[in-house]
Amino acid sequence: MKIIMLGAPGAGKGTQAKQISSKYDIPHISTGDIFRANIKNGTELGKKAKGYMDKGALVPDELTCDLVMDRIKQEDCKNGFVLDGFPRTIPQAEALTAALEKIGEKMDFAINVDVPDENIVNRMSGRRACLECGATYHIVSIPPKKEGICDNCGSELVLRDDDKPETVQKRLDVYHEQTQPLIDYYDKQGILKTVDGTVPMEQVFADIVAILQ
Ligand code: AMP
């Protein structure tokens, strides 16, 4: 099963993608996590991506597309994968469609986790991330067992630079301008499904599972 998660930054698509990955035993591919790992390891890609990410802008398509195309060719993706944060622009979506067409495949579902903008800014300011293992928390809805410490690996949790309120509005603007058109794109392909992302996350997950089954 090949799944794309769509939705504004902070809509909860990462949390849902992780659960889908574990229930259906398919890899969770988050371009944001891949970029953050590269930044942490000081790679060339990380150095290039950081400037864009800190501003709330998108990393250019040419840096992003090859990375994802290489990843989905790997052995562990042969039964499917869940893409989180990719595609984010029409050219990225077209590159993905073309790469899959070449091997006679196509995406199965594009799940749009729908949350209005006014909920997003509040959510993001409470978000906390572990830069060590990629786990994410929320100070109210998904608190860690010990405040400020990652349950998985014991590292310190931080408010990501790009989750700071001044950057969130910019990311929302970028989302509406560049990523929202993908909703139409996948609707036309006949694979778009929308779930209400404002209900409790267990319910969001149940709604997604009902679609996938
Ligand atoms: P995320 O963790 O998905 O919210 O991504 C964090 C940041 O990484 C975004 O604000 C972008 O700067 C960058 N990024 C992640 N995925 C993409 C993508 N598909 N295209 C361009 N930039 C991306």
Structure description:
The protein has helices at 13-24, 31-40, 44-55, 61-72, 90-102, 117-125, 165-179, 181-188, 201-212, and strands at 2-6, 28-30, 81-84, 109-114, 127-130, 136-138, 157-158, 192-196. With 213 residues, the protein is an alpha/beta fold. It has one domain: 3-Layer(aba) Sandwich (Rossmann fold), CATH 3.40.50.300. The strands form two sheets. A five-stranded parallel β-sheet has the order 2-3-1-4-8, with helices on both faces. The mean pLDDT is 94. Residues 9, 31-32, 35, 52-53, 56-59, 64, 85-86, 88, 92, 162, 171 line the site of adenosine monophosphate.
Overview features:
213 residues; alpha/beta; Rossmann fold; 5-stranded parallel sheet; 3-stranded antiparallel sheet; binds adenosine monophosphate
